Sequence to fold (283 residues):
Amino acid sequence: MAGQKLPVSSRKLREVALNDIGCDALFQFCKVQKEPVLITGIFDAIPELERWSPDWMQDKLKNKSVMVRESDSRTFAVGATSKEMPFDQYVDTICDPSFEHSTKRLYMQQQSIDHALPELKNEVFIDRYLPQKKVFMKNMWFGPGGNTSPLHFDPFDNIFLQLYGSKQFYLFDPKDYSNLYPGSCLSTTPHISGIDPVNVDLNEHPLAAQASLMQLEIKAGTALFLPSYWWHQVYSERLSISINIWLTTNFFKLCPGAITMLPLNARGFTMMYMQKFKSKFKK
Ligand SMILES: O=C(O)CCC(=O)C(=O)O
Fold:
């Protein structure tokens, strides 16, 4: 049966300019927010960030090979395959207007700036205003219009910067956890929803009708502060470049998302410590 888009609630996000917060006060500001906040005027406060564009990136990443995710549908499901390709070729492919109609989709999705793209490490600028021990990871997201990252939550507070193009965010409060058909807490995907809020079959997923959807467009030069465990699905409206900064987190928060992540986190920590233990004895 054909799905439908959930109705958008009238709940509005707070909007504030970065210059009004003050770059130096950004972390303190984020730390106390209980709800997402739209932060405007990023380029007014940090003009260096306006340079990010496909041409500028081609110059920065000349002769580099990058990892690109591939998908047969517009939604990049968890576990989408990745392939390595020259960055120049990636940009030429996604910037070609005919690519919009291609059935094979490509996305440089969640590429760690520190590990995969160190050439861009000094170009993030906004992280200089954040206490370094609070920055867990910085990622780049660069892809064509039409791509969707499916509905999920992350256990991190997120400063999401839109630097080029625009994206639609579909958001749900962590309180909507049980209306969104999350993966089992014993699976590797307890943070992924089983529904698409813009195409839900309410016969199959009736609880989704009780969830309260917020929708917002994020244009170049704006950022979204998204507290941990908020559900989000992200649609790229056109060719888009974004960076997100995950801030270190409290894994023991009292909310359903955090509780269902505990088995996965416990497995992750055990594996990490076993690796450390093994490498100690190899020396
Ligand atoms: O921009 C996207 O495609 C997804 C971003 C996202 O999921 C995140 O920042 O956590």
Observations:
- Residues 141, 149, 154, 158, 160, 167, 232, 234, 242, 244 surround 2-oxoglutaric acid (CB under 6 Å).
- The chain has a mean pLDDT of 94.
- The helical segments are 18-21, 26-31, 42-45, 54-60, 87-95, 256-282.
